[in-house]
Amino acid sequence: MGWRSGAEPLGVPPRHTNHSRQMLTKKGKYGLKALTHLAALPPGDLAFVGEVARANNIPKKFLDAILAELRNAGFVYSRKGKAGGYCLARPPEEIKIGHVVRVLDGPLAPIPCASKTRYQPCDDCEEATCRVRHLMLDVRNAIAEVLDNTSLAEMRDAGGPEKLVEEEPIRA
Amino acid sequence: MSAPNQRHSVAIVGGGATGVLLAAHLLRNEEADIRVTLIEREGSFGRGLAYSAVQRDHKVNVPSRGMSAFADDSEHFLRWLKAHGYAEGNDPWSFVARSTYGTYLADVLREADRARPGRLVVLSEEAIAVRETAAGIETRLANGTSVLSHHAVLAVGHETQPARGRGIAVRVGSARDTPLDPYARVMILGSGLSMVDAWLSLAEANHKGPILVVSRNGLLPQAHRDVPPIEIDAADVPFGTNVQYFMRWFRDLADETEETGGDWRSVVDGLRPFNQRIWQSWSEHSRRQFLLHLRPWWNIHRHRLPPDLHRRMIEAVDQGQATLIAGEFLGIAQHGDMVDATIRRRGARDEETIEVARVYDCGGVSVDVEASSNPLIRDLVATGRGRPDPLHIGLDVTEDNFVIDAAGQPSRRLLVAGPLTRGRFFEIEAIPDIRLQCARLAERLTGGQVAQARRFPSS
């Protein structure tokens, strides 16, 4: 008997195809911006894709695809129709930045060879002896540590224009 | 009543595997000025529900190499086996009899006592209630006395629920599990590891009659295989997604592993160190969905059988001695010596009533603490000093294992260790996880005391 024995309770899935080629791709960055936008909405409100795209300078088609992935992973919720749009599926305090980045960009890795499940060997070095890879494996764990301990709410509140204005000392 | 003195004191309620492991970890720190009272109603230590089985075929379902009492001394159990003349000591991939493991735990406790003389008190008494006082916490015993300590830890472990079916269904090995006509037809509810235990007990009693195994999915546990876990880091694991996404990722990884000549077990085992974090990263909705739809499927892959037992079980099914039925158990009625069990097979519209000599309830050990068979747990919940976790699979505790009361306030004195914390940690059923939790708790309980002593030096 194999591991598939028994039921397929939630359907047969497509293959996971994300490959992280850099620390944070455009997709990852746009996804985080869109989520930050949604995290700033009053509770219960939904935002249209076009509105989120315009406000954050993201190509709308790209954002459509990104939000669809975030919906499949359970981070956002969408409603169709006139009163439709997107909102967060969980409170922003519960959504961790590292969790979102893994979904959009694949395993956290500073360089492609430093992933264990999505390992992509370099064609110009020997992995076992590559000291750069060893160091980068440590780096990825440090990255995960930071990103997994930062919530969307914390990122939302950490900066942005309002904050800058507030904190700017205005003295004559 | 014993009064807490300056020395830090911990009372542990429950002397099964969890209680013994916690006591051993607390006494392991030679720097810690600590006193431990271990309270066990059965009077035998290290032999809780899991490790008291006397049948020789009742095996530990984890290979010996994973069964050391101490995570940082992984050879401890193998050394003990060798020192006591067990051949399994030479084979890290052996599966020892459960009673052997119970003997080991009792020795671990004896050794802890020997190493720190005068620090451990064991009481063969039943604890019936706990009350926090200004100075500490009072554990009330059925004999009318109390134990007063700074902290109390509930380590009541795998508590069995009363069997389903209005007192007609029976728990294997309980007092009501009287000898049966060897040719009688019997029914077992549940198809997990507890069912295998029941089937083994019947096999050892030379039961020849048909055995009907009824469970929601009709799935048998898988067999262990000696394969190494895959290497995987937290940075690879998709935390915080919904269950569908996670399962897609898991299946892809298992497929890829098998395509490159690996084994799905390596993926399940490689993931194990992250299971508590995965569980905690999920929303309550996702956890609920997992329990509802995926738990049986997960359990047969995660909680596996020693290969020889698995082979015997498969043979019994192939030869028709045991029949697996996927379906729902609906009810039960006694008439004379016989029992009418009503079920509905999966996909069937009609109910079906089957006459059997006995129905064994092996429906797992998840507990509804409100209906606990343990008076202390019942009192805790009834008086609002504790509450079930949101999913009703154990007691609600903080990240640091402190009990949360009905108003949502965490206790500063009362903790829970072991399987009753599964609502928060989920993967806290087996020794490899329980020993880690005990190490962490012991470090907090003894380390906190050391830190406090430094902060407030006696003048």
TrEMBL record, chain B:
Source organism, top-level taxon: Bacteria
Q: What is this protein called?
A: FAD-dependent urate hydroxylase HpyO/Asp monooxygenase CreE-like FAD/NAD(P)-binding domain-containing protein
Name the source organism. Devosia geojensis
Q: What residue stretches are annotated with the FAD-dependent urate hydroxylase HpyO/Asp monooxygenase CreE-like FAD/NAD(P)-binding domain?
A: 11-158
A Pfam family annotated for this UniProt entry: NAD_binding_9
Q: Where is the signal peptide, in residue numbers? A: none
Which InterPro entries would you find in this protein's record? FAD/NAD-bd_sf, HpyO/CreE_NAD-binding, L-asp_N-monooxygenase_NS-form
Q: Where are the transmembrane segments?
A: none
